[in-house]
Amino acid sequence: MKRTLQLLALLTLLFACGKKEHTTPSHPLFESVQSSESGIIFSNDLTYDESFNIFTYRNFYNGGGVALGDVNNDGLLDIYLTANLGPNKLFINKGDFEFEDVTELSGTAGTRAWSTGVAMADVNGDGFLDIYVCNSGDISGDNKQNELFINQGNGTFTEQAEAYGLADKGFSTHAVFFDYDKDGDLDTYLLNNSYQSIGSFNKMQNERPKRDSVGGDKLFRNDDGKFVDVSAEAGIYGSLIGFGLGITIGDVNQDSWPDIFISNDFFEKDYLYINNQDGTFTESLEKSIRSISAASMGADIADINGDGLLDIFVTDMLPESQTRLKQITTFENWDKFQFNKTHGYHYQFSRNMLHVNNGDGTFSEMGRLANLEATDWSWGALIFDMDNDGKRDLFVANGIYQDITDLDYLNFIDDDETKSKIISESGVNYKALIDPIPINPIPNFAYQNLGELNFENMAEAWGLGEAIHSNGAAYGDLNNDGTLDLVVNNVNKPVSIFKNKGRELNPEYHSLQIQLIGKGKNTQAIGAQVKIIAGEQIFYTEQMPNRGFESSVDPKLTIGLGEIETVDQVKVLWPDGSFTQVENIQADKLLKLKWDEAKPLAEGESFFDKKEATFFHKEEQASLDFTHQENPMVDFDRDRLTFHMYSTEGPAFAKADVNGDGIEDLYFGGAKGFSGRLFLGSKSGKYRLSDQTAFDNDALSEDIDAVFFDANADGSQDLVVVSGGNESGLGALELEDRLYLNDGKGHFTKSQQQEFSANRGSSSVVQVIDLNEDGAPDLFIGGRLVPFVYGAPASSSIWINDGKGNFSEQTSTLAPELTEIGMITDAKVIDWDNDGKNDLVLVGEWIAPILMRNTGGKLQKIEMPELQNLKGWYRTLEIADLDGNGLPDLILGNNGLNSRFKVSESTPVKMYLNDFDQNGSIEHIFTRQEGEVQVPYTLKHELERQIPSIKKKYMRYSNYNNQSLSDIFPQEVLDKSIINEINSLQSGVLMNEGNEKFTWRPFPRMAQRSYVFAIQVADLNNDGNQDLILGGNLFNAKPEVGKYDASYGDVLLGKGDGTFEYWPNAKNGLKLEGDIRAFASLGEGKLLVVKNSASAEIWNY
């Protein structure tokens, strides 16, 4: 909801003074149960009201919740539904999907004007489920007091919120009952939503510590049946900027204590409260999670990838359809994005987030890799095994009844003529304001888990594809058949009841149901932790029914097992630390386990895997004091339609013994305005800075790559540094590449040879190659980009050494194909064809790997059509013989799969480079292929800022959104474009089979979670096979695509055939922060990590 835009907020302040028919598939997994069959008559209807509507109350369409629970203890799951304006309803399950409305008889309708979330829990510990209803709204005459319906055990309830201390009068969204202090009774976290107008906040002021009684969240401790607000002393924020929409509880760090995740709408960051085990919490989100949703809505916590760790999924508002995305979406610009971070709101992006638990206190956001990032205006999120195949799926309820972020509508109400008609001296004509808002129902999403964090939307195939506006949802086994059914609360439509037909459609799939019988005041064993083990598989879950958006799910645990018919063990860790273990349990049964029959854990035993001694250890007392500082440069201010910064690719790094003491020394390049630094090694292992005037004099240059070599045959290591970046124009003095000559004692002076310094493009890489085999080292220098014309093919060059350190550029004679060869990012000199001559391999952006053969003093590009399906955004290249066949294999670092850009050979992403409007300014238009046409990613308002004529051609967003590039621009203009293409973003290896044959093997899926900029080859486990350490990330990406930050360093254990096993960070101990740009070995068991805009580190192993 954050994108309701400042315009809408300002208008609200002012006011205070073609459809596709839905067809049901023939054999869907879920069958819709009609009200005539179920007896459930309920619809959350919202009608227009002059005094209470979407403009007078911004949460008007947030909808109602669903609670499932057996309120009469007959073994059948009952349903409670909340309505915003109408009465809430309780339906008793009579069996076989027949229900009886007992609302009036039970006394549970509620008396407040606007209900939201609902939680079922045995609040008083008498063995019967009670119902807690959150109330909100801002309706005159209503005090919003929350209601607690205490179950009398005879089919009736009495409202006792006041007596229990839970009659809160805030703007409540949801509540969760859980035992946070482990004293044996249930406490409550109450999620409230700020009432203050968004446009009225001064975001430069830190409002977070200030408490607000009606808008802020609250934590209530249960003191002998009376709930006491302990928020402040417990460390829980309760301010006006807490726009809470989602709460979910789980033990994310495996210390057996429940932690809390809060998803906040609008500008406030989400909260991750880690339980300190003493009645207090520490808000730790920024220490654990690098990126969050911008408009966080619902959330759920569960082990989605089957590794025994709880992951977090958060919904946002990004549409899946590109046409709809262009109709309702705006993204924050770079300045606003940086403002949010500077003022404490963290890194926020407009998309769903899947925070995958790394098991070491950190999470990696991998929603884009999992294909879960875009589900439109989403609310409820539920992680559960929908088809019982043994992998947890994901259901997302979505839709806003009226598209208040529709960009054509926002332009309409911003029109002066419209304002004059709507706003008059007599007030605001709200009906004229609201009636034009588009109504576009969107199907909910049901993602099938295909394994390895790969999901496919099966909503249509599974019978859940009706276009609708849904909010709260809950899963539960309504007919006790071992499959999970689904109940969804909709706006202006009857409630959806979906019967799971998996038992008859997929009889080969099994499940195990577990009923936990608690004790004392915690009769449902809330907080119990359950682990099911079957062979190598682990199924981990926690007893926490209050989850999803405003909802509560079945307290009975249902675990899909796939084709497993018997599980080896079921382990339960009860909230008091006692333990139950049963073995050899048959599937497809209800297993009842009692807390009071549990025993203490055996001495030395642990419910969770014990932490092993880690392999990698960061050097705490730094022997090296180097911090790279990046110069301030925002590429997007000039290249407005690009998505990644190209000015942050340094620093350069090189190592050699420069002073002849037998110890390697280290050179680090500087960003523009910062000089390079030379650190001299010592026997003690420490490095000291060596003053070098020559480096200081060239501080204006951006140092991108460097290499030590003996240029002039005097026996000492000289240094060549190539300049690049994206800040300076072609021919600028600061772009010259530089040769520094060593006097043999580690003192460098700059060579003044004019031809070498005349190379003033933006370079990326330098490699030493004796091309003419005269014994004098020559140089290859790779061209990164044409300054100010990103996308144009850059030229690389060959420099021949006369043996005295004088270089002449001889590309046209020795390697003419290097002219305009492309945007090279890395290169290696190797004998890839095993003919005894040094060849050259190049990688870059928008190109496939390029292999050049040394034909006897000249380099010839070898055409390899089989590699044309590997055009990528490569950033690094490393060489190793991974399979022991004596041939060098190519290890490639690419963009990865955790990206907005989804590509294949048949659906490439292209970039058109042209001055489309002939005004002297270059534009970059990224497109994706749909069928036979190219459709731009660029939003209308972004394109018209660069090409103003677009605004005249397309007055409405709806006219632009489905246009192909050839619709927007004449073909004769497009024909003059430089066109670049990518069709592969995976990192991996090209295995050298000999005879010019290479076989592509991508890295494991987890190693595709971020950009790879650095690769280190080493046999880490001494098994004779080469292993890999990968480093990367790119923080400086436009908010529209989001930063690439999921990697903490990836370790791949080689199998000796070019394939690898992923070694999780929690097990190997590697935890790299920031943008990694280079690795280097500093001797046995020492790894140097070089970072952009951060301190270098040394890790021991």
Automatic annotation (TrEMBL):
Domain ASPIC/UnbV stretches: 525-591
Domain of life: Bacteria
Keyword Ligase tagged: no
Ranges in a coiled coil: none
Keywords assigned by UniProt, alphabetized: Signal
UniProt xrefs under PANTHER family: CARTILAGE ACIDIC PROTEIN 1
This protein's name: VCBS repeat protein
Source organism of the structure: Algoriphagus antarcticus
